[in-house]
């Protein structure tokens, strides 16, 4: 049923996994909320998020008290059951995950390395679970769980079996041996912060740990390079402003999704520019107005300004490439979203409705994610429901961070 790992190349590489940080414990031995404990100039959970989140296309938290963590800028899912057990956290994460495979990570393991997490994430998805092991045993709160484990996890909860490590005897498990230290010293790698004395040890260790050995600054670039086609990466590198195309087949609901996502990003304080493509041409100016008369008289560029808005209309002889259009945006914005531009090499989020079509326009290596009312199991990218605007906004926030690191 299980075998030891040799390397990440001895089987087909699995699809990208989602990362779930488990923050559901009561911190009884700590005596206070350990996730929010002061740690290396921030908090324990923010330390971990800062270092490992950029390596994953979708990140969320699982907690008993959702309100405690809403300010962290990632989705928070409430424990599915009231029982206090790591099994509840894992079960909730796997059930709520947008990906078939989820890496469940305890929020109190601050020195886990990105190299280890990526190795776990890249294991073949023929296994139901992938768990690290060292001389101290298994590390079930730093392990990948396939959605196929849900039935077994539910059985364990129904039987009040609270030891999460029991699952590995019951599902098709791959064990990643880490005792040789190639991912870091196992004594530090899985240092668990449970008590005030553990916290002090971790603080001293953090003071002498170079930040870039905890999570390389190249993680965002590595993930983009691994997932996206060369022409898409070239577009990202050449575009002055981070740009993502929201596209899909006609009447798929692109505009509705775009409106919902923009509203969510605006609530978060993000400044968003929007470009819409119209294959049939358009006319902004009203016939007979002064600017219309000036344009018809032969002016190549006409502009009208007020204390509230400025509009500039330029005559062009061809359909301009998206790169050129983005260059024309001079206002300070965080992100450019486009509706359409399916043929341009921008990274894309495709919108799909089953009533419209059962297929997609884009290749997997062009996509950041999919928004649909149907699953696309052959596409190893994050997938969201048609009204999951906050989750799509989270994906775009992650893209902004990865783009920043790449630049």
What is the element layout, followed by pairings?
Elements: E1 3-4, E2 18-22, E3 38-39, E4 42-43, H1 44-52, E5 59-63, E6 76-78, H2 86-96, E7 101-106, H3 114-121, E8 129-134, E9 137-138, E10 142-146, H4 150-158, E11 173-177, H5 186-189, H6 196-207, H7 211-214, H8 219-227, H9 230-238, E12 243-248, H10 254-267, E13 272-276, H11 290-296, E14 301-305, E15 310-314, H12 322-327, E16 335-339, E17 348-352, E18 367-372, E19 383-384, H13 389-406
Parallel strand pairs: 1-11, 2-5, 2-7, 5-6, 8-11, 12-16, 12-17, 13-16, 17-18, 18-19
Antiparallel strand pairs: 3-4, 7-10, 8-9, 8-10, 14-15
Helix pairs in contact: 2-4, 8-13, 10-13
Would you identify the regions where 5 or more consecutive residues have pLDDT less than 50?
Answer: 1-15, 211-222
Number of separate structural domains? 2
Largest sheet: 9 strands, mixed
Total helices: the number is 13
Principal-axis shape equals elongated
Average of pLDDT:
80
Which structural class fits the helix and strand makeup?
alpha/beta
Number of strands: 19
CATH superfamily of the largest domain: Spore Coat Polysaccharide Biosynthesis Protein SpsA, Chain A
**Measured distance between first and last alpha carbons:** 44 Å
Helical fraction equals: 25-40%
CATH class of the largest domain: Alpha Beta
| Alpha-carbon Rg, integer | 24 Å
CATH topology of the largest domain: Spore Coat Polysaccharide Biosynthesis Protein SpsA, Chain A
Strand percentage, roughly?
15-25%
């Amino acid at each position: 049923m299980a075998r030891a790992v040799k390397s990440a190349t001895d089987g087909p590489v699995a699809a990208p996994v989602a990362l779930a940080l488990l923050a559901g414990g009561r911190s009884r031995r700590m005596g206070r909320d350990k996730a929010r404990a002061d740690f290396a100039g921030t908090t324990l959970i923010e330390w971990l998020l800062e270092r490992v989140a950029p390596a994953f296309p979708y990140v969320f938290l699982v907690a008993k008290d959702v309100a405690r963590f809403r300010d962290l800028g990632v989705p928070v899912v409430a424990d599915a059951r009231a029982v206090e057990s790591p099994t509840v956290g894992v079960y909730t994460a796997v059930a709520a995950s947008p990906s078939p495979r989820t890496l469940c990570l305890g929020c109190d393991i601050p020195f886990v390395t990105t190299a280890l997490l990526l190795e776990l994430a890249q294991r073949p998805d023929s296994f139901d679970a992938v768990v690290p092991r060292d001389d101290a045993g298994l590390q079930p709160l730093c392990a990948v769980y396939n959605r196929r484990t849900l039935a077994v996890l539910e059985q364990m909860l129904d039987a009040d079996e609270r030891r999460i490590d029991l699952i590995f005897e019951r599902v098709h498990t791959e064990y990643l041996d880490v005792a040789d230290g190639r991912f870091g010293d196992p004594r530090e790698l899985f240092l668990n912060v449970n008590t005030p004395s553990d916290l002090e040890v971790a603080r001293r260790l953090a003071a002498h740990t170079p930040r870039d050995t905890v999570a390389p600054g190249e993680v965002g670039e590595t993930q983009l390079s691994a997932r996206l086609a060369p022409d898409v990466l070239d577009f990202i590198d050449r575009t002055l402003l981070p740009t993502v195309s929201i596209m899909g087949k006609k009447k798929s609901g692109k505009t509705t999704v775009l409106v919902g996502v923009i509203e969510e990003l605006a609530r978060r304080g993000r400044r968003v520019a929007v470009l819409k493509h119209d294959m049939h041409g358009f006319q902004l100016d009203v016939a007979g107005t002064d600017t219309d008369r000036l344009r018809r008289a032969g002016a190549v560029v006409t502009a009208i300004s007020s204390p509230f808005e400025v509009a500039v209309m330029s005559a062009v002889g061809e359909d301009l490439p998206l790169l050129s259009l983005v260059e024309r945006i001079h206002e300070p914005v965080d992100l450019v979203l486009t509706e359409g531009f399916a043929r341009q090499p921008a990274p894309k989020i495709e919108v799909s409705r089953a009533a419209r079509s059962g297929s997609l326009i884009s290749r997997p290596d062009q996509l950041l994610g999919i928004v649909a009312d149907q699953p696309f199991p052959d596409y190893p990218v994050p997938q969201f429901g048609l009204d999951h605007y906050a989750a799509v906004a989270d994906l775009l926030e992650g893209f902004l961070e990865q783009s920043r690191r790449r630049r």
